[in-house]
Amino acid sequence: MKIIRNIAEMQKYSDSIRRAARKTPHIMGFVPTMGYLHEGHISLVNAGAKDCTKMAVSIFVNPAQFGPNEDLTKYPRDEQRDLTMLEETKSVDCVFIPSAEEMYPEGYAAYVNMENEMTKTLCGISRPGHFKGVMTVVAKLLNAVKPDKMYLGHKDMQQAIILTKMIKDLNYDTEVIICPTVREKDGLALSSRNSYLSPEERNTAPVLYKALQMAVSMSELGERDAAVIIREIKRKLKEDRVEIDYVEIVNPMTLEKTEKISGSALIAAAIFVGKTRLIDNAVIRVSE
Ligand code: AMP
Fold first, then answer.
1. I need a surface site. Which of 52, 62, 200, 201 has the fewest CB within 10 A?
2. In angstroms, what is the span from residue 222 Cα to ligand 1's centroid?
């Protein structure tokens, strides 16, 4: 497993892989992460290893996607543990670990933005500038790694939808594959931020998953009015004494708010358990 910390070297490595495989061209898969890896990240590596001949993973805690009062400085990091986990998959050929100075040298000025509703809803409201930072870093990572396929998690569905649109609009030659959310036994979606939770908060945290499942059940029982489902989910979350950032039902392609559910919809929520902000979502499918 090769470790690369420099953009030019990463590009050279990617080019050399393609040059070396003239007869059967390599398919390069890529999993961008902020490190402090868990089985959710590893599931993306495993999905990639099934369809790609080479796998690259990046580890970079991207300052541009954190707001001034967010957790950039305390975001959990453990490079050695991450490298061991990636090595153990036996599927990763290269780990790209640039420094903040390498990605954003002094005078850095080019940012990617998206002028539509996708970035202004859900997490875009409570985290202004977040998706601009995400799009910018992923655009830069794609230029460094030059992957054929990029693997993203369903847990961060808004991010996956925005990045898919960015890739299409900016003509990146990379296919996006969205993989299922990996969960703890009690339903809590794995997240690097779960490490912030106290034992008591950890016991409370699965309420998010349970509330989303309740929404799915309500729709299965025939409820089509998004406002009714949202009201019920909020009531449940309040009962469990967590602070609600948002609960919304949206179109799973455009992220526009849904009033009457038909076909499929996405219920997405963000809550605070203590000081830790957790997000999750579930797909609602109804027959017309
Ligand atoms: P992060 O390191 O949190 O920026 O996440 C890197 C990638 O892993 C993103 O595409 C996430 O959506 C994905 N991811 C995070 N948690 C999970 C999970 N529990 N299951 C599947 N994918 C995940």
1. 200
2. 32
